[in-house]
Amino acid sequence: MRYHSKILTTAAMLLASASMVQAERMTVVSFGGAYGAAQNEHMIQPFVEATGHEILFEDYSGGIAEISAQVQAGNIQWDVVDIEVIDLERACSEGLLEVIDHSQLPAGVDGTDAADDFIPDALASECGVGVIVWSIVYAYNTENDGPAPQTIADFFDTETFPGPRAMRRRPQVNLEWALIADGVPAEEVYEVLATEEGQERAFASLDRIREDIVWFDSWSQAPQLLNDGGAAMVQSANGRIFSAIQDDGRPFEIVWDNHVYDLDVWAIVAGSDNVDTAMEFINFATGSEPLAGMADVAYGATRLSSAPFVDPAVNSNLPTAHLDTGLKADGIFWADYGESLGERFNEWLLNE
Amino acid sequence: MENSLSREDGRNARRELNRRRIAAFALVIPLLVFIFFAFVAPIATILYRSVYNPVVSDLIPETLAALDAAEWDRADVPPDDVLNVFSAELSLLAQERLSGRLAEEINRAIPGMSSVVRSTSRAVRRMEQDTLLSEGGQTLLDANDRWGDVAVWRALQDAGAPYTEDYYLTALDLQRAEDGGIEARDGARIYVTLYTKTLRIALIITILTLILGYPLAYFLANAPSKSANMLMVFVLLPFWTSLLVRTTAWIALLQTNGVVNSFLMSIGVINEPMEILYTQTATILAMTHILLPFMILPLYSVMKGIDPSYLRAAMSMGGRPIPAFVRIYLPMTLPGLSAGALLVFIISVGYYITPALVGGTDGQMISNIIAFHMRESNNWELAAALGSLLLAIILLLYWVYDRFVGAGNIKLG
Fold first, then answer.
1. Is the ipTM here above 0.85?
2. Residue-wise pLDDT tens digits, B92-115
3. Which partner for B384 in A159, B27, B49, B100 could form a disulfide, CB atoms 3.0-4.6 Å apart?
4. How far is CA B101 from CA B41, B53, B68, in A?
């Protein structure tokens, strides 16, 4: 009896204390790895300390399949999700995400209005607020013999630059590069790729190096392949190569020619129970200082006012410093052609 | 003749029997319920999903009804009033933010339509229903000239049928022709190739596990119990290790500068590292290792039960070792052999994680494409059709096996 009453009192006390703080519990989902760690350090932990809310920080591997399943089943597990812009357009127009009122985003630390402080792409969708600018580049090992590659055409030139190339097994970025290597100007790539002849031209260009391509499925394999000699050049998210150079002292070099850059955004899953807390979190996490923390893993901030907080030595490693040589990944194009080119790509892979 | 059992006794006996039956059934109920919810129900839903896709018919019911009412001949763009109804429905969808779902379904038939549907839905979103119902058709054509393409409207009507066999046709690299017949698919034709490749890889793995497992099981069954137990631990050890760990270990062994290549180069067998990782060979190697216990264990338990005196008797009556083995021992191990081969074959047909990690391009199996459609292209209906076909192939093979070998012959222990 005494035992029971003890449990009851404890439970009552817990309840009381919980209602006093008004702490909310919410789930934030991102990509994990070094990127997730940087977000945890600069966004999640400071937010938890400042507000007392409880955050469950989970990993996923991108795509909209899981969000779609949760919304369709009406069983919402996630509140805030880090989404690649390439998936954002689709998720937003299918009603999987809440609409975010961009006008209530706080001004930058220097007082600039949010609408002017964010780069335009960061607020392009009504469903998200930009977190990082990241990029797909290629890198090589400086200890290899022979000349140093400098352009996308070099990546496709296996005679001057022999050795295996590692690429992620999917049509995205590979087809863009194939066309650029074949002489299509970067600004016309998506236009050309939307035509039947353009698609054939891209696959023909890939065909020329097919024997030398090593395929991988996860970005984590990229620095590893470059390291163990599995490939002479690898396609990679720029942050992965940066941390291999910075943290592990690897002799890698990034080539910024025609890198394909894109944004990640914070978005709120439609039907979340914690929309207000989620919005509070997004406002906090996309402040000038937390955004500048993403430079730890070489991803660029989406606010101009973050620049003073970034170490100048790191600056040249950020995609935002190379936007003039880059190509913006076209989310609308890939929403149109992702599935059909995906099938065609699979067919091309199989018919060796 | 006197009946020793009275009627009363008979009733009692029957009652007792019934009571036992009910008790036995009650014990099985939890398992049946579990199997129903964890196995039968999900598979049935998936099977149903592959033929039933009501998304478009739920999104634009009035447009589809208008197409029927106008008795549209599919030769030209539908009449204006149908276009008006569609523009009004599209506007409603845009307000409820559901136009993306329609865009995705139409885009599946005509790549490139996704952005057309979405940009048009933005154009009509804020317009009045009345205006759209009277002149929305022109707004559509002004927003994008693709709405003047009859193929788009055909695709819309086709996608509007809630019950469809199209996904099965796609899964067999076929499509429905405009005249209603069935023809080879225009787009990528990969699925039949993948099915045959999957079955071939599964067969190779079954044969390899058999070649490796049979002698080992024989040795285990006949070795002195002390060393047999020791060896048994080695067979079971992989069973107790996580699948992911074993697969990753193969990556470390097979990679370009991995253990296997370094060893072969150091003893001078090869001069340059071989490309083994991310090939079909890697898939076969790793899966053979992982599935080997499934072959050894049933074989071992059957061999353990075979009296060695049969073979001795055959030899003592003048049988030479090989015929004695083939005619006496082998038939007796057939139940274990069938069980092992069937287990390995069926498990490897549906294997996903190992080919995904070590298979590279040509080591991919049908399950990897199913995963692609589940996770990346979001075409769950096609994934369901591919999965159902895989299930059908396995059941067919099992039936063939039952006809020729007999399923009653299987013995796991």
1. no
2. 999 888 888 899 899 988 989 999
3. B49
4. 26, 12, 23
pLDDT tens track for A31-75: 888 899 999 999 999 999 999 999 999 999 888 888 988 998 889
Of A93, A216, A351, nearest to B99 by CB-CB distance is A93
Q: Do B115 and A336 touch (CB under 8 A)?
A: yes
Enter the tokens of residue B38: 């964890």
Query: What φ, ψ does residue A128 adopt, rounded to 5°?
Result: -150, 165
pLDDT of residue B29: 94
From the CA of B376, how many Å to the nearest CA of chain A? 6
In order of their start, the domains of chain A are: 24-134+263-321 (3.40.190.10), 135-260+328-350 (3.40.190.10)
CB B94 within 8 A of CB B83: no
Distance of CA A113 to the CA centre of its chain: 25
* DSSP conformation class of A106: P
Pick the CATH number of B191-409 from 1.10.3720.10, 3.40.50.720, 1.10.10.10, 3.40.980.10: 1.10.3720.10
Task: Please state the pTM of the whole predicted model.
Answer: 0.81
Interface test with A, best of B49, B90, B96, B107 (most A CBs within 10 A): B107
Contact A347 B188 (CB under 8 A): yes
Model confidence at A20, pLDDT cuts 50, 70, 90, reads: very low
CB spacing of B188 vs A346 below 8 angstroms: yes
Q: Which of residues 188-207 of A touch B (CB under 8 A)?
A: 194
